[in-house]
TrEMBL record:
This is NAD(P)-dependent dehydrogenase (Short-subunit alcohol dehydrogenase family). Gene3D superfamilies: NAD(P)-binding Rossmann-like Domain. Pfam families: adh_short_C2. Keywords: Oxidoreductase. Belongs to the short-chain dehydrogenases/reductases (SDR) family.
Length: 263
């Protein structure tokens, strides 16, 4: 059954920029209350504060927490707060949009640094494994209920390679595997879990990728729409997919790329 989102709650992990921020804005316009977790310096915190004020202008609650979303202590501290804020309603939508990892090559040239075990573990823990840990704790706390939707942000990098992207590519591949397993285990509870595969999207995390300008130019030329994916495109997809109580669309990698991967 198609339902209204107004009055429900959304948790965005990675809420202060890029796709996470766009999704939070879109859902706030739809009347969804926002819980945002981000990990920023002063500039990022100020940006999150401004975003929260803008969202509250739509008549919803918006609470942002500057904390490391990949930390077990953060989950321990925030889950009781989420239970209090949601007032027993639970969390309808969870968005995992954490983009923090190393861009070092596996085998650097003579004058280059190579990837270390610590950097590999950190990248996969933040960008992939934290999805599992958040979902576990939210479900155990009773915050994920029938009709809830969990989204993880992936990319074509989960199946493709390019210089200095190895650890992130591995994280995206692991993330998609986690989505399938969580979808299987949460299906009896009526909870859907999907990965959204955005096309090449201009975000702060993309700008850190070496050669991102060339990557963007090529994606724009190849995309049937002759433009890059925008964070707002992904936000609209989350809003659309979340309007049903059904969990029948689950365990998928859903392309939100304007047909970019077709070409």
């Amino acid at each position: 059954m198609i339902t209204r989102l107004e009055g429900s709650w959304c948790l965005v992990l990675g809420a202060s920029s890029g796709m996470g921020l766009a999704i939070a804005h879109e859902l706030a316009r739809e009347g969804v209350h926002i819980l945002g977790v981000h990990f920023d310096t002063t500039d990022g915190q100020e940006k999150a504060a401004v975003a929260g004020e803008e969202m509250r202008g739509h008549g919803v609650e918006a609470h942002f927490f500057n904390a490391n979303a990949a930390s077990a202590r953060t989950r321990e501290e925030l889950l009781p707060r989420f239970e209090e804020l949601t007032g027993g309603k639970g969390i309808r939508i969870v968005v995992h949009s954490l983009a923090f990892g190393t861009l070092l090559p596996y085998v650097g040239a003579a004058d280059e640094e190579s990837l270390t075990a610590r950097q590999m573990n950190m990248t996969l823990d933040v960008m992939a494994h934290s999805l599992v840990y958040w979902t576990q704790d939210l479900f155990t706390a009773g915050l994920l209920r029938e009709g809830a939707k969990v989204y993880a942000m992936t990319s074509a990098g989960g199946a493709r390679v390019m210089p200095s992207y190895g650890a992130v590519s591995a994280a995206k591949a692991a993330l998609e595997s986690h989505v399938r397993q969580l979808a299987l285990e949460l299906a009896p509870s009526g909870i859907a879990v999907n990965a959204l595969r955005a096309g090449v999207t201009p975000t702060p995390s993309m700008e850190r990728i070496p050669g991102s300008d060339r990557l963007a130019a090529r994606a724009r030329d190849l995309n049937p729409h002759r433009r890059l994916t925008r964070p707002e495109d992904v936000a609209e997809a989350v809003s659309l997919l979340s309007r049903t109580d059904s969990s029948w669309i689950t365990g998928n990698v859903i392309g939100v790329d304007g047909g970019e991967l077709l070409t």
